[in-house]
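Help needed: design a sequence for this.
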């Protein structure tokens, strides 16, 4: 008797991705798709992706996806949710987008308590445009614009945007997860599911930050990149629930 142990989520299209070997975006896509399938929500999902590594998300997700100008994803998601309050709306953003050009957008979206979910993929670098310094780049980390490593005297300190959002009265659920181990992948799925359920309950703004590897721009192998998240990145960006008033 045959038993099915693996099935492609209906919320993912059957096609290869453009992501680099070892990139975490593919894992995050799969987690989101599984959650949406589990919730039976595919026909009422609206997602928004900006400029960045995830700009082609519509090629992979098997539900309605829109693009937004760089950093303006929360504004587009806000408009969609207000027009279609019965739909499950989420933005899918990288750290260069959300924590740099889109800082004002995400802060005011959270402060207004917009009833959307935000998936924030943090790989600590500008992955698409050449590996430049991002707001989340670690101290002493190499980038193409900090060739001797990030120096806080000239480039400032890593920005903990999720902790910053915790002070906004409109934010309901904020958590930081990762995809560097099977255990953390399961927790990531749990947090994303909770974020979507909070939205369905009309409780307000929620965000899940996900630490993700970028082997190419980190100049590490995929395996070494996962180890770096465990030993280095998660020390600067601690994992777990940061705020939950749901």
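Sure. Designed sequence:
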């Amino acid at each position: 008797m045959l038993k099915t142990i693996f099935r492609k989520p209906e919320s993912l299209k059957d096609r290869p991705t453009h992501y680099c070997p070892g990139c975490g975006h593919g894992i995050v896509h799969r987690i989101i798709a599984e959650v949406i399938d589990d919730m039976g929500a595919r026909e009422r999902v609206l997602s928004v992706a900006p400029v960045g590594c995830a700009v082609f998300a519509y090629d992979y997700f098997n539900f309605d996806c829109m693009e937004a100008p760089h950093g303006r994803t929360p504004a587009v998601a806000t408009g969609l949710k207000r027009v279609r309050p019965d739909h499950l709306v989420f933005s899918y953003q990288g750290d260069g987008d959300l924590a740099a050009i889109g800082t004002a957008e995400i802060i005011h979206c959270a402060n207004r308590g917009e009833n959307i979910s935000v998936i924030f993929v943090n790989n600590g670098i500008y992955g698409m445009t050449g590996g430049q310094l991002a707001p989340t780049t670690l101290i002493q980390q190499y980038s193409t614009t900090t060739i001797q490593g990030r120096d806080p005297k000239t480039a400032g300190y890593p920005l903990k945007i999720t902790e910053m959002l915790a002070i906004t009265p409109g934010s309901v659920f904020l958590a930081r997860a990762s995809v560097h181990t099977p255990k953390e992948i399961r927790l990531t799925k749990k947090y994303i599911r909770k974020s979507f359920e909070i939205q369905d309950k009309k409780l307000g703004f929620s965000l899940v930050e996900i630490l993700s590897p970028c082997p190419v721009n980190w100049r590490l192998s995929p395996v070494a990149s996962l180890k770096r998240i465990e030993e280095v990145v998660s020390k600067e960006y601690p994992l777990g629930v940061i705020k939950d008033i749901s």
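The longest strand covers residues 171-178.
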